[in-house]
C-alpha cells in the first residue's frame, strides 16, 4: 500500500507494519484464535483498517502473502532438487518453447509442473492448522463428533502421512 492509497507516508507505514504483524501471526499458533477471552486488539485494528480501505477504495486484498510464501517454498524445493528443476524446464521448453512466457492456457499441457505445485502445497501448506465446524453428528474412527463441534485439522501432518501417499 503506497501513499496514494492512504492518507500519507505515516499511515502507509502503519498499514504495512499492521499487515506484516498479521502475516507473521497467521503462521504461528495463536491462543486468541481458539479462546475468546485471550483476544488482543490486533484483529480489531486489522478489521478497522480493512473496512476503511474497502469503503474508501472499493478494493479487497486477501491471499497475496500466502501465495508469495507458497511460491518461495516451490522455488526453494526446486533449488534443493536440481533434477526436478531440470525436468520441469524440459517440459516447459517442449510445450511453451523458449521464446515466450508460460500462459494460463499452457497449464493443462504441463502435468509435471502441476505436480510440483500440488506437492509444494502439500508439503508447505499456507495454513498448517485449520479450524472447521462439523455440520452434523458423525463418527470418525470410533469417536462421536456432535454437530457444530469445532475441529482442528492438521493439514501439515496430513501432507506428510505416508499412509495417505497413495494416488486415488
UniProtKB/TrEMBL annotation:
Q: What is this protein called?
A: Uncharacterized protein
Organism equals: Linum tenue
Molecular function, one GO term: oxidoreductase activity, acting on paired donors, with incorporation or reduction of molecular oxygen
InterPro entries reported for this sequence: Cyt_P450, Cyt_P450_E_grp-I, Cyt_P450_sf
Superkingdom field? Eukaryota
Pfam families noted in UniProt: p450
Amino acid at each position: 500500500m503506497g501513499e496514494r492509497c492512504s492518507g500519507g507516508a505515516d499511515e502507509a507505514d502503519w498499514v504495512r507494519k499492521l499487515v506484516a504483524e498479521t502475516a507473521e501471526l497467521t503462521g504461528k499458533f495463536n491462543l486468541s484464535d481458539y479462546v475468546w477471552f485471550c483476544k488482543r486488539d490486533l484483529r480489531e485494528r486489522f478489521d478497522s483498517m480493512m473496512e476503511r480501505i474497502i469503503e474508501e477504495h472499493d478494493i479487497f486484498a486477501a491471499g497475496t502473502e500466502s501465495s508469495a510464501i507458497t511460491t518461495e517454498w516451490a522455488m526453494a524445493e526446486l533449488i534443493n532438487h536440481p533434477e526436478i528443476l531440470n525436468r520441469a524446464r524440459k517440459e516447459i521448453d517442449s510445450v511453451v518453447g523458449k521464446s515466450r512466457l508460460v500462459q494460463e492456457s499452457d497449464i493443462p499441457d504441463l502435468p509435471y509442473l502441476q505436480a510440483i505445485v500440488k506437492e509444494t502445497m502439500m508439503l508447505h501448506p499456507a495454513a498448517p492448522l485449520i479450524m472447521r465446524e462439523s455440520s452434523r453428528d458423525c463418527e470418525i474412527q470410533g469417536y462421536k463428533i456432535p454437530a457444530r463441534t469445532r475441529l482442528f485439522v492438521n493439514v501439515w501432518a496430513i501432507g506428510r502421512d505416508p499412509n495417505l501417499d497413495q494416488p486415488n
